[in-house]
Amino acid sequence: MQVQEDTVAAVDTLSKSYSSQWEASAGLEEAGPVMQAMASNDLIFIVLGVSLIIWLVLLFFIIRTDKKVGQLEKKLNNSNTD
Fold first, then answer.
1. Are 39 and 28 in contact (CB under 8 A)?
2. Is position 32 within any domain?
3. What share of the chain is helix, strand, coil (3-state, %, to 5)?
4. Domain coverage including residue 65
5. Which of 22, 24, 52, 59 is the 20 to 30 Å CA partner of 43?
């Protein structure tokens, strides 16, 4: 029984410590559409979207670099055969 009381006391301590940070979400109705979207979707979809954009940009640069290297190899092979 003592263990349950200790965990309840720990929860109460945390809620008192972070209560000032939770008060900032009270004015969410006045926030911009981006902040409202982030708050309504629990931020996970925002994080997934940003990581998807990063991966797509990296893929684009890898493909572009591969094409440039391929062109340089062709030029090098053509200059060696001449």
1. yes
2. yes
3. 90, 0, 10
4. 53-82
5. 59
**How far is 34 from 31, CA to CA, in rounded Å?**
8
| Rg of the chain taking only CA atoms, in angstroms | 27
In a domain, 57, yes or no: yes
Domain presence at residue 78: yes
User: Would you state the structure tokens that stand for residue 73, as one six-digit string?
Assistant: 């190899």
DSSP for residue 31: S
Sign of CA dihedral 52, 57, 62, 66: positive
For residue range 1-60, list pLDDT tens digits in order: 555 555 555 555 656 666 655 555 566 667 777 777 767 667 788 889 999 999 999 999
By the 8 A CB rule, do 17 and 26 touch? no
What pTM was estimated for this model as a whole?
A: 0.49
| 15, 7 contact by CB (below 8 A) | no
| Residue 48 within a domain | no
